[in-house]
Amino acid sequence: LRGTIDTALADLSVSTPVVGTQIIGNYPAAPAGVVPQVITAGGRLFMLSDAVYEIDPINSVLVQLLKPGDVVSDAPVLVPRALTWREDRLMVIDATRAYTLDSSTGQWQAQSLSTPDTAGYVNTIAAEAFDGNLYLLMPADGKILKFPAGAYGATPEDWVGTVAKEDLKSAVDFAVDGHVYVLLRDGRVLDFLRSRLKTTFAPAIIPPLSNATSIVAEPNQAFIYLLHGPDGRILRLTRDGALTQQITAGDAADRLRGAIGLTVDEEKSIAYVLTETSVVTVRLPAPPASSDKVTPTAGETR
């Protein structure tokens, strides 16, 4: 039956099943208000749940790197809200500070963020760094905040202002490669450039997306990737938003059901997916030979 379904999807939505999957292991539950996240960078794999971990996918081990209550720069770490990669190091955000990990020493450094009140940015669900600038996604407020490089202690810019403010309230994730791509729950992607809404991607697929959960758009990668939570489908889009492939879970549907986090290593054709309880390695099929790969042209995100 699964094979019949995948064949039908292939006819309708350039669909290909995953090559294979493997469960790395389970992870501790995140506290309320924190969205579990996973990123791969610098040849390493990291995730956020109740704390920040490095994942060893070969030995199925989580190595804790930072947790609430750890003391960094003479102050305790609050609940980590988001993680990203800035230039050559891991960055973690809590409600009032940004932390970077010096991989050569294993030491954390902290930078205070300018905050409007003592509570800080507790509504942050995702963070991105680009050209040293820091961006925070806060759907509850309908905002993306931008902290300029070298001045995180300065008042941040309300980067999109009133543009698409209501749509931003249904945002679930975002990615920055010079453009700012905001993924909405219904699967639409808002493509911002220089604080203006340039276009909206709305992949037309069967079955349609109902609960998108994660987006990946790394500057050095050929494609944009979207994750669909209920069935673990991964959409592969060109850099201008055209659908090139729908990657279905196939026989791994049970493993990928409830998918909430995604990161992609294009060079190895591997994705790492977080479900609500597990970390799963997904081997991706090759993109269709006719894929029109669009080389990203980074625009200044001002």
Characterization of the model:
With 302 residues, the protein is mainly beta. It has a single domain (2-283), classed as Neuraminidase (6 Propeller). Helix content is 7%, strand content 44%. It contains three helices and 27 strands. It has helices at residues 2-13, 165-168, 253-256; strands at 15-17, 20-26, 37-41, 44-48, 52-56, 61-66, 71-72, 75-76, 82-86, 89-93, 97-102, 107-112, 126-130, 133-138, 143-147, 157-158, 171-176, 180-184, 189-193, 196-201, 212-216, 224-228, 234-237, 243-248, 261-265, 270-274, 278-283. The protein has a five-stranded mixed sheet. A four-stranded antiparallel sheet has the order 2-27-26-25, with no helix packed on it. A four-stranded antiparallel sheet has the order 3-4-5-6, with no helix packed on it. Strand 9 (82-86) and strand 10 (89-93) form a beta hairpin. The longest helix has 12 residues, at 2-13. It is globular and about 50 Å long. It starts with a helix and ends in a 19-residue tail after the last strand. Mean pLDDT is 92; it is low at 6-11 and 293-302.
What is this structure's SSE topology?
Layout: H1 2-13, E1 15-17, E2 20-26, E3 37-41, E4 44-48, E5 52-56, E6 61-66, E7 71-72, E8 75-76, E9 82-86, E10 89-93, E11 97-102, E12 107-112, E13 126-130, E14 133-138, E15 143-147, E16 157-158, H2 165-168, E17 171-176, E18 180-184, E19 189-193, E20 196-201, E21 212-216, E22 224-228, E23 234-237, E24 243-248, H3 253-256, E25 261-265, E26 270-274, E27 278-283
Parallel strand pairs: 1-24
Antiparallel strand pairs: 2-27, 3-4, 4-5, 5-6, 7-8, 9-10, 10-11, 11-12, 13-14, 14-15, 15-16, 17-18, 18-19, 19-20, 21-22, 22-23, 23-24, 25-26, 26-27
